[in-house]
Amino acid sequence: MRCYCCSSASFERCCEPLLNGTKSPKSAEQLMRSRFSAYATNQYEFVINTYTREKQEGLTVESLKQSADGALWFALQITPPSAQEATLDTVEFTAFYFENKSLFQLHETSNFLIEDNQWRYHDGTLHDDCGKIKYGRNLPCLCGSNKKFKQCCATKLR
């Protein structure tokens, strides 16, 4: 099975070892991808554990579950940084999800820190294009499968 984070690797080789703790993320992008996969598979304990200590305060599995309730996360696109913007601790991404049979996107530039020799998510800046979007059924699927959207991830709405 292809990984939830839309990399070209299988879930077993990509994010699963990070989610089950047998491997640690080696970069901010790898942590971002694994956090997306955790949301896609409802592994909120992993999400909490990958925040910085400062940001973990007040978070609970139940509060994350409640905030994500009804969302079906299905595609992640990492925006490659320009040469001027490239830093090791920042990742710009767009995550796509369905909620109430509508399509939404979350576009964020995330900041990561190394804490206790582990990459951790600290905070992020949301872009103005977050929210409900329209996407053509005959366009290539957002997940990068090279199929039409209507023949790929849009089938998850049925």
Question: What report would you give on this structure?
Answer:
The protein has 158 residues and is an alpha+beta fold. The chain has a single domain, classed as Roll (Nuclear Transport Factor 2, Chain: A), CATH 3.10.450. Helices cover 22% and strands 27% of the residues. It is built from five helices and five strands, in the order αααααβββββ. The protein has helices at 16-19, 28-40, 44-49, 53-56, 61-68, and strands at 72-79, 90-99, 102-115, 118-126, 131-132. Strands 1, 2, 3, 4 and 5 form a five-stranded antiparallel beta sheet that branches. β3 (102-115) and β4 form a beta hairpin. It starts with 15 loop residues before the first helix and ends in a 26-residue tail after the last strand. 26% of the residues are buried.
Give a nutshell description of this structure.
The protein is an alpha+beta fold and 158 residues long. Helices cover 22% and strands 27% of the residues. A hairpin with a 2-residue loop joins β3 (102-115) and β4 (118-126).
Task: Kindly list the characteristics that best describe this protein.
158 residues, single chain, five-stranded antiparallel β-sheet, alpha+beta, SEC_C_motif, globular, Nuclear Transport Factor 2, Chain: A
